[in-house]
């Protein structure tokens, strides 16, 4: 989606510059040359005047209020499914400039359990989504399918076996659990049918200005267990609403998911 952001900023600046030049200088020059005849307005000026207000509003809303994203992978199942379209609160963690993502006004920091969209350090041109598990100063460990937070294991409540559909059907049979993350209980998936190997086990202490993020689909998520801590500067916003779900292999639109809050 970064190409769209660059294009939107570029078009807004271009149409705004053309509109301003026409208002301050070009129109007067055109009318002076036309004399008593009606001055003919170039097409680029006509389009710029028409589209600049629309582009400016879209850019401001998308950059500072809410931005739509599409979930492309299964790393956040069962919370978010492949084909979910979500809205992200862009001012939850500070107002940031488009393209550079530089924070200009601080408005808040992520809380434990927030589902966040960010630029991963190893793929700065992409948008990823995970859940904040560790805050600055926390010690997070992951052993035997269990998260330990500051030395204490989290409690897990069983909800039986997961039944997937559409593009997520291959997760059927996984253990569906409710992870009692302090302040934000949420569902996670654990697989029993994978070959025996270590799934990102270890212990980490989160440095200042960084966060430890994990996917809810614990055996199918490339997260902080594998690539390290998420810098605060790479945050894009907080996911809060599913506004559409489209999965052709599951029959198209799932109206039951539309309007659901992101837990």
What secondary-structure arrangement, pairings included, does this model have?
Blueprint: H1 2-34, H2 43-64, E1 66-70, E2 84-89, E3 95-96, E4 103-105, E5 115-118, E6 128-134, E7 139-143, E8 146-149, E9 152-153, E10 156-161, E11 175-179, E12 186-190, E13 202-205, E14 210-214, H3 224-227, E15 230-231, E16 235-247, E17 252-253, E18 260-261
Antiparallel strand pairs: 1-2, 2-16, 3-4, 5-6, 5-16, 6-14, 7-8, 7-13, 8-9, 10-11, 11-12, 14-15, 16-17, 16-18
How would you describe this structure to a colleague?
- With 263 residues, the chain is of the alpha+beta class.
- The protein folds into two domains: 2-64, no CATH class; 66-261, Ribbon (Umud Fragment, subunit A).
- The protein has three helices and 18 strands.
- The strands form four sheets. Strands 1, 2, 5, 6, 14, 15, 16, 17 and 18 form a nine-stranded antiparallel β-sheet that branches. A four-stranded antiparallel β-sheet has the order 9-8-7-13, with no helix packed on it. The chain has a three-stranded antiparallel β-sheet with strand order 10-11-12, with no helix packed on it.
- Strand 3 and strand 4 form a beta hairpin.
- It is elongated, with a radius of gyration of 24 Å.
- The model has no long low-confidence stretch (mean pLDDT 91).
């Amino acid at each position: 989606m970064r190409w769209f952001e660059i294009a939107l900023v570029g078009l807004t600046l271009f149409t705004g510059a053309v509109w301003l030049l026409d208002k301050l200088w070009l129109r007067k020059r055109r009318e002076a040359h036309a004399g008593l005849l009606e001055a003919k307005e170039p097409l680029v000026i006509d389009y710029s005047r028409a589209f600049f207000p629309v582009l400016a509003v879209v850019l401001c809303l998308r950059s500072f209020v809410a931005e739509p994203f599409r979930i492309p992978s299964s790393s956040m199942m069962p919370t978010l499914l492949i084909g979910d379209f979500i809205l992200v609160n862009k001012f939850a963690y500070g107002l940031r400039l488009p393209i550079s993502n530089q924070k200009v006004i601080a408005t808040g920091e992520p809380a434990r359990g927030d589902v966040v969209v960010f630029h991963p350090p190893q793929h700065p041109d992409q948008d990823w989504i995970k859940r904040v598990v560790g805050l600055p100063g926390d010690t997070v460990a992951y052993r035997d399918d269990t998260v330990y937070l500051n030395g204490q294991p989290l409690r897990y409540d069983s909800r039986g076996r997961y039944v997937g559909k559409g593009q997520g059907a291959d997760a059927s049979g996984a253990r569906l659990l409710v992870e009692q993350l302090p302040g934000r209980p949420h569902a996670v998936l654990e697989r029993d049918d994978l070959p025996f190997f270590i799934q990102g086990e270890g212990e980490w202490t989160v440095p200042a200005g960084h966060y430890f993020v994990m996917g809810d689909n614990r055996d199918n998520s490339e997260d902080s267990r594998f690539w390290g801590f998420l810098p605060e500067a790479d945050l894009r916003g907080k996911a809060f609403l599913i506004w559409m779900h489209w999965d052709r292999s599951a029959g198209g639109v799932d109206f039951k998911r539309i309007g659901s809050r992101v837990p």
